[in-house]
Amino acid sequence: MEIEEAREVFLSGIDPIMDRSSLSPVQEMVPLEKAAGRILAENVTASFPVPHFSKSAMDGYAVRAEDIREASREKPAVLRVLYERLAGDLPEEEKNLPAEGRNLPAQAEGLAQTAVRIMTGAALPEGYDAVVRQEDTDYGEKEVRVFASVPAYRNICRKGEDIEEGSSVLLSGSRIGRVEAGVLASLGTGEVPVLRPVRVHILSTGSELLEPGEAWDNDRVDAGERHGRRREQREASVLQSRTEKKCPPAGKIFSSIPYALMAGLSGGCFSVRMEICPDEPEALIQALSVALECADIVITTGGVSVGKKDLLPDILDRVGAKKLFSGVNVQPGTPTIGSVKDGIPILSLSGNPYAALVNFDLYFWHAAAKLTGCPAFLPRTLHGVMGEDYPKKNRLRRLLRAEEREGCIYLPAESHASSVIGNLLGCNCYIDLPAETSLKKGDVVRIIRMAE
């Protein structure tokens, strides 16, 4: 399959969290100050306009536009100042400026040739239809000389000009960022209905894997025993190693992939659990079965190829998962598997760090968008110009790590091996390179932005 076909098939097996029948609630109320990064669970409709009264957009004088129609430096309009109104002062009457095109109320006739000193944000007094900025006056306190005319409704923030009453402001599935939070606050929203965090379970397989920070003793325990130890024992081992910082022996490595994946799943939208499991069938079956009971999506790493210890294809069959795709026309990550069990998607990635990361980005964020109804998760694709050559032709479609700077694309190093992760530092995109294609400086390429 091509990437796009595999992804479409994978997404077809995913039901949005909001559509699932479950005894546990799929949404929760959180204080607005803790809602950043969360997914809105309900549509938001404005129950009142913003602003809900007409107000001055600057420091100056509230006037009737007709009273200063002929005002100029040579012939200023002279107005009697009735009083001063500051931001926060309550108007004498809870009335608002009439809509454009309507006549002013009858009582406004008594306001002819008058003004109100007004500060930015203060409610526009009844009967006045414009604000003249103070720089166009002599700053008079009892009587003000106005040196410029302004049309009606000039320098006023009119009622509802930001948000109209009854308008649809935010849709369910919106991710709450700083603008969304500001809009919600302007509507007086103290608590926000959000989707509960998406439960992600990352299961890294491999008898060679150690938890970062875990002390290693050749004479201590094998991988199977280590997996079965209680959590507090493993934590004690990590605590011990903080001072030792031993390099593991040949044949053992610290597990890096789940920590890289978890770091990209911050922000409150995701609740992540991760564990390491040895390459032992019964341990894998147990770990995967437990993960499927408590997760919305399961990510596995390692064991998907054709080696003696690549057990995942058989394990997926044994737990009753339905394979949706495997064997994709892409390098790295050809053996990536997408499957589903009882409505829970399983994305099985390579155990090589770069292969795992790039294929995670290819499939997971689309799955997250489907699960949450939030399109903000979808990766951005754009085009750039190569800043250097890439002469190698690959048999399969290839995704190359790269850095985009002001529209120009640079390669980080000579090595593009799927096992290398260090030269991803500084990279921010992948070049989507068709099969049997080389690149020269100046060529236009399609790139996929990495998740930030």
Model description:
The chain is of the alpha/beta class. 19% of the residues lie in helices and 25% in strands. The protein contains 8 helices and 24 strands. A 6-stranded mixed beta sheet has the order 15-12-16-19-18-17, with helices on both faces. Strands 7-4-6-5-8 form a 5-stranded mixed beta sheet, with no helix packed on it. Strand 21 (398-405) and strand 22 form a beta hairpin. Helix 1 packs across helix 8. The chain is elongated, with a radius of gyration of 32 Å. Residues 93-108 have low confidence and may be disordered.
Task: Give a topology summary.
Elements: H1 3-12, E1 27-31, E2 44-45, E3 55-56, E4 60-63, E5 77-85, E6 114-118, E7 130-133, E8 143-146, E9 156-157, E10 168-170, H2 178-186, E11 191-195, E12 198-205, E13 209-210, H3 223-228, H4 231-244, E14 253-254, H5 257-263, E15 270-277, H6 281-294, E16 297-301, H7 312-318, E17 322-326, E18 337-341, E19 344-349, H8 353-372, E20 381-386, E21 398-405, E22 408-410, E23 429-433, E24 444-449
Parallel strand pairs: 5-6, 12-15, 12-16, 13-14, 16-19, 20-22
Antiparallel strand pairs: 1-11, 2-10, 3-9, 4-6, 4-7, 5-8, 17-18, 18-19, 20-24, 21-22, 21-23, 23-24
Helix pairs in contact: 1-8
